[in-house]
């Protein structure tokens, strides 16, 4: 029930109508009896500054930040933690004592999702893609003690990312001569189309395959990886774990992971 004591949270993005985060966070609030509500804030680029400053004025407790604002929002915050600065993107704002604190939980979401399938320390991982999502994933893997090779269609982008974070790079075609413990797909290929960025024949050279695309939940890559005998991790797991980390920052309480996953799954269907 919403009362005068209800704390408001939300998601700033454009568009946000299809976000699974409201379902996920509201289910979590009600599961632990926290007096919170989480709402969509569709904010266009030209109104981002006003929206973010307005969070303080309205007493909002915190927000998730999504496409296209994760980088631009950094200009309007009071503090940004060193991890988010290194990743170069903020996906979480905590409003504490009237100050806007930016952080990033995407990297932790990737790490925790992968840890459901494997230890990461000392493992070798191949990351497909060099966009914003790849940055958080590569950072997370390095934090967790894995070695990483970044492969991208545009090799220069993979090289720039790898150099900045201190790792190796190559082209997408290099997948044909590489093997590793873990393969993580961060490109937009497979999103609402039944395509995989790599040939199915290479997949048996990996033990664990994760796709950060979650619509559809089982992408072509994940189906082919399963058929090749790999353990698979879907993109919903990363979404849930990055959300769980946000929930814990905002409420100071342990996130009910399974309830969040079930709520996100229901919202996806
Ligand atoms: P995000 O922030 O979600 O990572 P992005 O920054 O736009 O999105 O990055 C999209 C990624 O998907 C990039 O690595 C892009 O490769 P390029 O750098 O070569 O553009 C990759 N990508 C998109 N369409 C692709 C395709 N058809 N084949 C291979 N890679 C593709």
What is the share of helical residues?
A: 25-40%
Overall pLDDT confidence:
97
Share in β-strands: 15-25%
CATH topology tier name of the largest domain: Rossmann fold
Number of domains: 2
Give the tally of β-strands.
12
Strand order of the largest sheet: 2-1-3-5-6-4
Based on secondary structure, the structural category is: alpha/beta
Principal-axis shape equals: globular
Helix/strand order: EHEHEEHEEHEHEHEEEHEHH
- Helical stretch count? 9
Unreliable segments of 5+ consecutive residues: none
Termini, distance in Å?
A: 25 Å
Query: If classified by CATH, what would the architecture of the largest domain be?
Result: 3-Layer(aba) Sandwich
CATH class of the largest domain: Alpha Beta
Supply Rg. Answer: 18 Å
Tell me the name of the CATH homologous superfamily of the largest domain: NAD(P)-binding Rossmann-like Domain
Major β-sheet annotation: 6 strands, mixed
Architecture overview:
The chain has helices at 21-32, 48-58, 82-87, 106-115, 132-143, 155-165, 220-227, 235-251, 257-268, and strands at residues 7-13, 36-42, 62-65, 79-80, 92-96, 99-103, 124-128, 147-152, 168-171, 182-185, 208-211, 231-233. The protein has 269 residues and is of the alpha/beta class. The chain folds into two domains: 7-104 and 242-268, Leucine Dehydrogenase, chain A, domain 1 (Rossmann fold), CATH 3.40.50.10860; 108-233, 3-Layer(aba) Sandwich (Rossmann fold), CATH 3.40.50.720. A six-stranded mixed β-sheet has the order 2-1-3-5-6-4, sandwiched between helices. The chain has a six-stranded parallel β-sheet with strand order 9-8-7-10-11-12, with helices on both faces. The longest helix is centred in the C-terminal third of the chain and has 17 residues, at 235-251. It is globular and about 60 Å long. 46% of the residues are buried. Residues 129-134, 152-154, 157, 186-189, 197 line the site of 2'-monophosphoadenosine-5'-diphosphate.
